[in-house]
């Protein structure tokens, strides 16, 4: 089983609760970064940034970030060095993003897809494994080099 974090603003609040519950029922250790109550005025960075830091720091193996479209959650998650987040709304990308690109946070728009597809995508994401192929490692090394370069400039 896996250590997984989940975060959502008001836009993904209801979907977050459902996804977290089924992940726990499947035996995963789930850390909920909020929102812990529905507040239409909350801001996705307040929940996604702590999630992204925990994934990048190795405290969690994977993360799930939700908002209405998934776009804002994805943008802020990718600002944290070491995070490889992607907005996913199809099954192929849910596994290929992990297998080839070592994606560690899946971002989903709760107003874009329904619960059944969201759960299928999360299961696919969680079950996928990075292949470690040389060409994929080479590409990830280039991303890591860019992150280091941006820290020093």
Describe it:
Helix content is 49%, strand content 16%. The chain contains 6 helices and 5 strands, in the order βαβαβαβαβαα. With 153 residues, the protein is α/β, with parallel strands linked by helices. Helix 1 packs across helix 5 (115-127) and helix 2 (45-56) crosses helix 3 (71-77). The radius of gyration is 15 Å and the shape is globular. Helix 4 links the parallel strand 4 (85-87) and strand 5 (105-109). It has helices spanning 13-25, 45-56, 71-77, 91-101, 115-127, 134-152; strands at residues 3-8, 29-32, 62-67, 85-87, 105-109. The termini are far apart. The chain has one domain: Sugar-phosphate isomerase, RpiB/LacA/LacB (Ribose 5-phosphate Isomerase B, Chain: A, 3-Layer(aba) Sandwich), CATH 3.40.1400. A 5-stranded parallel β-sheet has the order 2-1-3-5-4, with helices on both faces.
List keywords for this structure.
single chain; Ribose 5-phosphate Isomerase B, Chain: A; 6 helices; alpha/beta; 5 strands; 49% helix; 153 residues
- The CATH topology annotation reads as Ribose 5-phosphate Isomerase B, Chain: A
Q: Considering the protein shown, what is the CATH homologous superfamily?
A: Sugar-phosphate isomerase, RpiB/LacA/LacB
Biggest sheet statistics: 5 strands, parallel
Instruction: Report the C-alpha radius of gyration, rounded.
Output: 15 Å
Question: From N to C, what is the helix and strand string?
Answer: EHEHEHEHEHH
How many angstroms separate the termini?
Answer: 39 Å
Name of the level-1 CATH class:
Alpha Beta
Count the domains. Answer: 1
- Which stretches are poorly predicted, pLDDT < 50 over at least 5 residues? none
Average pLDDT works out at 97
